Amino acid sequence: MTSAEPVIRCRGLSKRFGDLLAVDGLDLQVRRAEVFGFLGPNGSGKSTTIRMLCGLLLPSAGEIEVLGCRIPRDAEALKRRIGYMTQKFSLYEDLSVLENLQFLASVHGLSRAAAGARIEELLERYWLSDRRRQLAGTLSGGQKQRLALAGAVLHKPDLLLLDEPTSAVDPQSRREFWESLFELAEAGTTLLVSTHYMDEAERCTRLGILDAGRLVADGSPRQLLEALPGHPLLIQCAQPRQAQRALQDCQEVLAMAQIGAALRVLVASAEARAAIDQRLRAARIEAQLQDSPGNLEDVFVTVTRQPLQARP
Fold first, then answer.
1. Which of 14, 23, 44 is nearest to 300 (CA)?
2. Which domains does the chain have, with CATH numbers?
3. Would the pLDDT of 311 be above 60?
4. For the whole model, what pTM was predicted?
5. Which of 109, 193, 246, 294 is most buried by a 10 A CB count?
6. Pfam families under this entry (predicted)?
7. Which residues contact 1 (CB under 8 A, 6 or more apart)?
8. How far is the C-alpha of 112 from the C-alpha of 189, rounded, in Å?
9. Roughly what angle, to the nearest 10 degrees, separates helices 141-153 and 171-186?
């Protein structure tokens, strides 16, 4: 498989749970060695999509091809070629670090010699050598995360799927974890990562934003920023909370957030600046308005606020 060929290909992928349509006609392609990020509000279909890609959930409609395997037909054969890491620590807390990795090695059918060498390599790489005899349940959040990653890549998968893997760890552990992910990508592993963190999204080579089970944006972080339809403004004033209340029902405002002593406002267009200024003056709020560079949070807010019928 060349780098230009898709490792993941979905066409019209849907998943229904009773009356709930969790994933709605998803078309998606992920190429080899990409670090593809999934963004989306809670309930947008990220976890459901990942579980279908793993073969853990049967789709209600559509086609899935992962590493040349058709899902669900070839789901069993695919298991040996993918790694899967969930948000919740899923290894055995009453086994040691070493025992967990030995158990996973046996599940993947590694010989004793191959397993021993691979486990030692991973213990060293993920800073767990001095924790090998420690029960997994007594590890810190960052240590558990590194152990889970070691277990997910033990069998050297071609594709690694990670479902919000950094939600329970501190910023330093998150940074170290992402360094490990880039090492895997550099070695040729394809990664699909769902995340809630915008700084993590910026690290991805490509992003897909899901909302209500549909893909509402797809591209590199730079491409998504260049296509941002909204216009960010920074409002400097002595009463940012009062300014926020004054702009609460303004149709031109897409989103607002207080940043320190200032108010950051995303408006529909640059022309809306005059309306914002007029609103603040009417509320007798003295303020300075200045343009602000866009960020991925602006993209996220904009594309997930569009009415469904207006989306592509």
1. 44
2. 6-225 (3.40.50.300), 229-293 (3.30.70.100)
3. no
4. 0.87
5. 193
6. ABC_tran
7. 7, 32, 67, 68
8. 24
9. 10
